Amino acid sequence: MRAEDLHIDTLLAADAEVGALHFAGHRAVIVDAAALGALRRELMATLGPAEARAMLTRFGHVQGWRAAEALRGRFEWDSEHAIRDAGGRVGILQGMLRLMPGTGPMTPEGATVGDSYEAEQHLLHCGKAEAPVCWTLAGFASGYLSCVEQREIVVVEDRCVACGDATCRFLARPREAWGEPAPSRDPALAEEAWETRSPAMRRVLELARRAAAVDSNVLLGGASGTGKDRLARFIHARSSRAQAPFLALHCGAIPEPLLESELFGHARGAFTGATRDRVGMLEAAGRGTLFLDEVGEMSPAMQVKLLRALQQRELRRVGENHARPIHARVIAATHRDLAAAVEEGSFRRDLYYRLRVIELRLPSLAERREDILPLARTLLAAACAKVGRNKMSLGAGAEERLLGHAWPGNVRELENAMERAAALGAGPTVEASDLPDDIGSRPRASGGSLQQLERAAIAAALERHGGHQQRAAAELGISPSTLYRRLRRGG
Question: Where is the Sigma-54 factor interaction domain (predicted)?
């Protein structure tokens, strides 16, 4: 079977007696495109553009994945290339688009599409767009290609009829080829990246969603490695600034003279080596977001300059006399206790209050132990894809060591441990010996034994779910039978 051999009569089946339609063996419905356009308008009005984009992209991803599964199981394909190209043919047969001649979803030039129903309906219901809007189609292509290739393929639309372009164009690459952060995390897959069973973390994410809806400055606190950078991107991706730049600056990693130039920019000749004008990050962020990591490491002199810029909403490049407006939103982060630093006099009180209009604190991994195993599995899958090996699972011994570790390095430490296991593990299962030697061997934060920690986590989960073992097991990321065995072992 080749892609061009697919026809509507071989894919669509109708049962006249019961009125059921099936497309490639899956139950299907016919929906008026205008109804989908109205749904899009309501989603954008109710949830905001960023959340609507995320929802519609995930919807398309599921649709594309299921289509690939159906086609693989239903037909004998001439080659992997043939089933890969069939995704565009399915889009045509379902009335979603017209694939322009000579293009395909994996060519370096991308796939050029005409008659996108999504661009058409966006123009009809929402008007001209500032950024590409074929979110469902991009999600469909991502899901389809990811299923076929058995690795994460991210499809991004870079031209769109809804923006005034003559055609829509989609670019497809493996996630790692996009660099970090991959476009898939902005914002379509951001929700999955923050899947959590921790009530404390869920509360943080809920507040982050609310913070995204306003333009106030945000201060993120929490220990190193808890994911402050990722939370800043999460907020940006759900804000009205999502289509504008997200820039990050680590305030503690740059000497003060260079930090001033990085932040505010400089004029040619402002100092030795300044051979040309430089735009600072506050200015380069435009109407987007500037993330100031480890803002607590700023010197008192730099604190004064940042405060003045935030108060007056304008900056002066080093070596210039005239002011330039600031439009960016600032999200700052620190692992330090800034309130204590204010009392000690090492951090300006007025800057502290200017930055912490909204304050969010990320819990440490030790404070959300119910997330350790699910998060480890997610990070392990990503690590396997990164090093190019088949998916691995966690063995019982590895799970016990992971649960028994204090995680002073938080999520970053767990991510590194999973990458090591994926790179060095000999078999399909991560054993205890595949983990770094110090995992599970450090003094534990609670001071208890592994069994005590395990019993405490199980007891807390059972209490939250009213004794319901299946729900407690799901929260802990283990099977009900494993939970039952551990309860019996604990007496």
Answer: 197-423
Helix axes 33-47, 49-74, angle to 10 degrees: 140
Query: What is the CATH classification number for the domain harbouring 464?
Result: 1.10.10
How far apart CA 344 and CA 355 sit, in angstroms, is: 18
Residue showing tokens 């992971």: 402
What is d(CA 270, CA 18) in angstroms, rounded to the nearest whole number?
78
Instruction: Tell me if 426 sits within 8 A of 389, measured CB to CB.
Output: no
Domain of 415 in residue numbering reads as 374-400+408-445
Residues 231, 136, single domain; the answer is no
Residue 42 lies in a domain: yes
Instruction: Answer yes or no: are the C-beta atoms of 308 and 319 closer than 8 Å.
Output: no
Model confidence, pTM:
0.56
CB 194 within 8 A of CB 368: no
CA–CA dist 343, 199 (Å, integer): 31
Determine the pLDDT at residue 345: 94
In tens, the pLDDT along 159-174 reads 899 988 888 988 888 8
In a domain, 367, yes or no: no
What are the pLDDT digits (tens) for 461-474? Answer: 776 676 777 777 76
CA-based angle 184:380:363, to the nearest 5?
Answer: 80
Residue 396, sorted as left (phi over 0), alpha (psi -120 to 50) or beta, turns out to be alpha
Neighbour order of strands in the sheet with 20-23: 12-15, 20-23, 26-28
For residue 46, give the H/E element and its range. helix 33-47
Nearest Cα to Cα of residue 227 among 178, 193, 192: 193
Count structural domains, the chain: 4
Q: Is residue 241 part of a domain?
A: yes
Verify that 201 and 244 share a domain, yes or no.
yes
Report the run of H or E that residue 62 belongs to, with start and end.
Answer: helix 49-74
Q: Are residues 116 and 138 in the same domain?
A: yes
